[in-house]
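Morning, I've got a small favour to ask if you have a moment. It would help a lot if you went through both lines with me. Thanks so much in advance, here it is.

***
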Amino acid sequence: MDDLATLPPLERLRAIMAALRDPVTGCPWDVDQSFATIAPYTIEEAYEVADAIERQDWAELKGELGDLLFQSVFHARMAEEAGLFDLDDVAAAIANKMIARHPHVFGEQSNAKTAEQQVQDWETVKAAERAARARGGVLDDVALGLPALMRAEKLQKRAARVGFDWPEIDPVLDKIAEEARELAEARATLPQDKIEEEMGDLLFVMANLARHLKVDPETALRRANAKFTRRFAFIEAELAARGKRAQDSDLAEMDALWDAAKAAGL
């Protein structure tokens, strides 16, 4: 393995992955993995990239992008072992796709377009690609593995392209009120599975509202999570200064500290 240090970085990474997957001399854990077992790690690494960006931690972002790249190398290695494709094929496929989807950069089309027009052109090209793959349904290739909130938004966006959408926000707000009433009624009278169904309906229409407001619901919820974390940390710090823990406090005290955190701009 001494020669690994002399390889270009990507080739070095590919060689490391091959060594880890060697059935005789490799790492037992790496050898034991499959596409299905690695997929959750791939999703997790993508979110850690997003987290580093959210915190503007550029040094950490470099490491997180490396972790995400390693996931691609891992999947490509397993595919190569199965005789499906290899890392070069992956790189060639994405390069070809980017060239095909940017005729205003790599082709004859003018690039004198707004970003919105270019998004529309991108969607037109993707629709043609879906048709070429013989996926006739409008929603057929919205990935099942996406986080549920993100998938809800994408399903609604795809349906909107063929006119299945409210033309303005007011009906969406009315639908939220309707779904909230149905959830309250379900909580009082229906079994747990029906309560879950009504909760899902409310979350689904909330994702639709985000789309109409041009807000990314995943980003909005991540920021809300971060804000909750900051404010709760403030509560814990203030309680510690009083010689207490959260479990020693009560809702009234913690709620007052929450208001203080909010007033402090946290």
